[in-house]
Amino acid sequence: MWPYPKIVAHRGGGTLAPENTIAGLRAGLAYGFRAVEFDVMLSQDGIGVVMHDPDFGRTIYGDGHVSNHTAAELARMDAGRWMAPEFRGEPVPLFLEWVDYCKEHRIWMNIEIKPVEGQEEETGRWVAHTARARFAAEVAAGAQAQLPLLSSFSMAALAAARDAAPDLPRACLFDKVPTDWERIARELGAVAIHTNHKHLTPALAAAIKQAGFGLFCYTVNTPERAREILPWGVDGFCTDRIDLIGPDFA
Ligand code: G3P
Ligand code: MG
Question: What is the pTM of this model?
């Protein structure tokens, strides 16, 4: 039901490094993490880049929009200096560069498909197809626990991912789980429900587990809250506080 790691570093290295940068992956490794959640959207030329916001202004200085720039342009932008001078020059990672780093360091991936508005299907298709090609050997070997888990708030993106790479696992990502979650998850062939821990109740957790799905929460940043929800049947969660909640947290 959940062959994946229990504790996952959010957006690379949580709050210890600029989000969605290779510096974040290095921070995660330094704290013993070999599991990461990150966000992927498409550049103007249809290439996956690791980014959370479609608009510049927060992690990339200035005005602009990811979908108005090529991947080569984005890869030259500074995604680190907003956080601290020491991270100056950290580039926007290309999806494939990120995947290769994770494979090299044996970091498990929860790939959040984060489409720019209007590009839901294209993004889901591109991410699934590209990830599937990189994990052909693992798929052939039936190494389920090593496959990346594709999640998205966009059910259209997940449907496109399912059609492009049916044998990569998928998870429905909800802020608040809707009442018809089980129908949606079954239609998409999802293996897990990912949800905001703030809206989770013990009864909902039990229903999801009883129906045979994995249950993963975002973003749990205190050990107290982690200890509260894990007994509800939560299989795993991502955290920004990799310094407070370690990979072997129990
Ligand atoms: O995938 C879980 C979590 O990352 C979803 O929210 O906005 O942090 O990408 P967000
Ligand atoms: Mg995310």
Answer: 0.98
